[in-house]
Amino acid sequence: MTANHPGGNRRRDEAGRERNRSTGRNRTAAAPAERTRAADPARLVAFEVLRAVSEKDAYANLVMPARIRHHHLDRRDAGFATELAYGALRAQGTYDAILARCVDRPLDELDPAILDALRIGVHQLVAMRVPAHAALDQTVGLARAVIGAGPSALINAVLRKVSAKDLPEWVAELTEGLSDEVAIAALEHAHPEWIVRSLRQALVAHGRDISEITALLEADNAAPVVNLVALPGLGNLDEAFDAGFTPGELVIDSALSSGGDPGRLSSVREGTVRVQDVGSQLVARALAEAQIKSELTQGEERWLDLCAGPGGKAALLASLAAEKGAWILANEPTPHRAKLVAQAMAAVPQDTWTVRTGDGRDIGVDHPESFDRILVDAPCTGLGALRRRPESRWRRKLSDVSELGPLQRELLNSAIDALKPGGVVAYVTCSPHIAETTAVVQDAMRKRDDLELLDAGAALDAASLTGNLGAGNAGSPVRTDQMSAQLWPHLHQTDAMFLALIRKL
User: Fold this and answer.
1) What family is it from (predicted)?
2) Within this chain, do residues 341 and 476 fall inside the same structural domain, yes or no?
3) Percentage of the chain lying above the pLDDT 90 cut
C-alpha cells in the first residue's frame, strides 16, 4: 500500500505493527498486543472481595484480610486493594448511576462479574489518583484474566466514556434538575435515599442539628481507622506500637492505625489484643463501671452478654469481669457463631465465663433475676457502622427497621426479667435510627414501674480517657429526656453507638 493509496498514510514500526496515530484520543497508551493480559494482584484482591460480596453475601471486612494474605500483598498493595474494594462498594449507588449513562443496556442485564469489574474501574477513574490510561489498561487486563477476552471490549468502551468526566461533573449531570435535598445528597454522598432521610431524622431526634448531615455522610465515606483493644489484665499494645499503631485518645488500652493487617500481630492471633471499634469499647466499659445497687445484690457478680456473637464485646466484658472477680454468661442463638464467641473469649481464664447456645428471648424465663449486669447488643440495621461495612448500605432496606423492632423489644424485655433488683442493663445498638434506639427503650420503660434510667452520657464520659467526650469541638454524647447517649462518626470518630442504661429498682 503506497502513501498515495487510500489509507496509505498508516505507518508501521520496525516490528511491522501499525503505530497509533490518534495520540489526541483518550486511549490506552499500549498497542493491542502490548496491553495488559494479567491481573494485577492488588486489583485482583479488590475484585475477589466484590465478587464475594455479590455472590455469597459476604462481608468485605471479613473477606479482605484473607485475600490479602492469600495473594501475599505487601503493605502498600494491601492499602491500595482495600481502598479500591471499599471505595467501589461504598459508592456503588453513585457509580451505578454513572454506568447507567454509559452502558447501552440495563445494568441488571450485565453479567455480575462484568459489573463488579466496571465498578472497580470507575472508582480508579473518578476517586483515586490513578492515571486514566493505567486504570483502563489494568481493569481491562483484569477482565481478560478472570472473566475472559469477550467482555474486555465492552469494559474498555464503557470506561472510556466514564473517563470523559471527573466525579464532580458526573454528579452535576446526575443531579441536574433535582430539587429534593435528600435525593441530591444520596447521589453526592453515595447513600440510599432512605438512609439519608433516616440519618437526618436521627440527628434531630438525638438533639443534633440537621445541618450536620453532610459531615455525617462524609464520615461514613472516610476510610476507616483500625481500632485495637488490649484485653485488661491479659494483653498489651507494645507490639502494635512497634508496628506503627498509635495510642487511642478516647479509651484506655486502645490503639489506632490507618493501614496494615492487624492479623499479622501475634497478640491479635493469640486473642489478647482484639480489633474493636472505640465506640464498642466505650459502651462495654460503661456497663462494667455502671453503679448497681450493691445492697440489693449478693455475692459474686454475675454478668450476661445476651447477644454475644461474634464475641468482640463478650471478650472485653469477660476480661473486665475477671478483673472484678465476676463471672459472665455469653449467649448466642446460632451454633457456629457460639463457637466464634468461645474462640474470642479463649484468652480469658475459662473458669470466669460460659457460652450458652440458645434464644436470648428465653433467658428471662430460664434465669429470672439472676444477673447484675447485662449487655443487650441488639441486632439492628447497623447504620452506625457504614464506614466499616461499606456494602451494608446497599444491602439493607427500610423494611429491615420495622422487621427488627419486635426482636429488639423482646430481647430487652427478656434481659430486664433476667436482671436482679439493683442491677443494670445496657441496651446498645450500632445504629442511631430512632426506631431502634429511644423508641425501644421508651416502650420498655412504659410497661414497668420498677425501672430507672441512668445517665448514659455521664457513664461514657467516665469510661473515656478524657472524662469529657464533649471537650473541644468533638460534640458530647447527647443526653435526651430519657438520658440515653449517642456517639457519632463525624464527632467522635467512632461508630454511631447508642447506649441506654436501665437499672431495676
Assistant:
1) Belongs to the class I-like SAM-binding methyltransferase superfamily. RsmB/NOP family.
2) yes
3) 83
Longest Cα–Cα distance of the chain, Å, equals: 105
Confirm whether residue 293 is marked as ligand binding: no
Are residues 284 and 252 part of one domain?
no
Same structural domain, 163 and 264? no
- Same domain? For 410 and 451 the reply is yes
In 10 A of CB 361, how many CB atoms? Answer: 17
Which residue is it, cell 468485605?
Answer: 60
Instruction: Provide the number of structural domains found in the chain.
Output: 3
Is 177 assigned to a binding site?
no
Q: Is 400 part of any known ligand binding site? A: no
CATH number for the domain harbouring residue 432: 3.40.50.150
484 contact partners, CB below 8 Å, separation of at least 6: 437, 438, 441, 453, 456, 457, 478, 498, 499, 500
**281 and 358, same domain (yes or no):** yes
Same domain, 474 and 354: yes
Can 380 be counted among the known catalytic residues? no
Q: Which among 329, 430, 441, 500 is annotated as catalytic? A: 430
Domain check: are 264 and 344 in the same one?
Answer: no
Please give the angle made by the CA atoms of 345, 347 and 348, to the nearest 5 degrees: 70
38 belongs to an annotated ligand binding site: no
Nearest Cα to 292, choosing from 363, 374, 376?
374
For 450-482, the pLDDT digits (tens) are: 999 999 999 999 999 988 885 433 445 555 556
Q: Per residue in 106-124, pLDDT tens?
A: 999 999 999 999 999 999 9
